[in-house]
Write a structure and sequence with these properties.
Elements (H helix, E strand, L loop, with lengths): L1 H80 L10 H12 L3 H12 L26 H16 L6 H6 L15 H15 L2 H11 L1
Helix pairs in contact: 1-2, 1-7, 2-4, 3-6
């Protein structure tokens, strides 16, 4: 009888110990799993925060690069214009660059045309005391040079560019989409090409504008 009780007691003890070990093991596994999940969540949070910082840094860096290229373009345009005339309006280089970038028009082309027409606003209808007509647009009077350049860019897009036509086509045949000539001078395109090629060859303006486009 005593042996039977002892055996029962041992079985009870073994069950208690086994249950205790099972519960302990389950608790340890659960804790380990939670720690693993927390670690994964923390790692994911760090990754997301890092990605966010990288994106913000990239945006800031891109904006700074664009600003640097724009400023360098203005300096380059001003430097070249001064080789032709020292009496040009001080903001014409800035207006030409900003309009060229805004409307995606070749800045060298714009410079060549105003050089041929009014020598950057120092001759004829391009003078401040005349009509501010930098590009010699017939009978047009502008309140300032910024407005003259802006209107010229809009005119190019509306009447001259499009249907796969670019500024390079105008250097060969400067006519509207309907065939009307920009100027009566039969040598107008030749004069434009000479000015354009000289500007493109002797400055970094064209390349800087391409760099600007590649970033966008």
């Amino acid at each position: 009888m005593k042996q039977t009780k002892l055996k029962r007691f041992k079985r009870i003890i073994l069950k208690v110990v086994f249950t205790f070990l099972l519960i302990s093991s389950t608790i340890l596994i659960s804790l380990s799993s939670n720690q693993s999940c927390n670690a994964k969540e923390n790692n994911q949070l760090v990754i997301e925060q890092t990605d966010s910082i990288d994106k913000d840094t990239l945006i800031v860096d891109t904006a700074q690069i664009i600003n640097n290229i724009t400023e360098e373009l203005i300096v380059e345009v001003d430097k070249y214009i001064k080789t032709k005339t020292n009496s040009h309006h001080q903001f014409i280089p800035k207006y030409l660059v900003l309009a060229g970038l805004k409307y995606d028009i070749d800045i060298c082309f714009m410079m060549a045309q105003t050089q041929v027409e009014t020598c950057y606003g120092t001759l004829g209808a391009g003078r401040e005391k005349s009509r501010h007509s930098l590009f010699g647009v017939a009978y047009q009077r502008y309140p300032n040079y910024e407005n003259a350049i802006d209107s010229y860019c809009k005119l190019l897009h509306k009447s001259y560019l499009g249907n796969s036509r670019t500024e390079q086509h105008l250097l060969t045949k400067y006519v509207t989409l309907r065939g009307g000539r920009y100027a009566e001078n039969p040598n107008y395109e030749r004069d434009l090409r000479i000015a354009y090629n000289h500007i493109k060859k002797n400055t970094n303006i064209y390349q800087l504008q391409q760099d600007y486009k590649n970033i966008l």
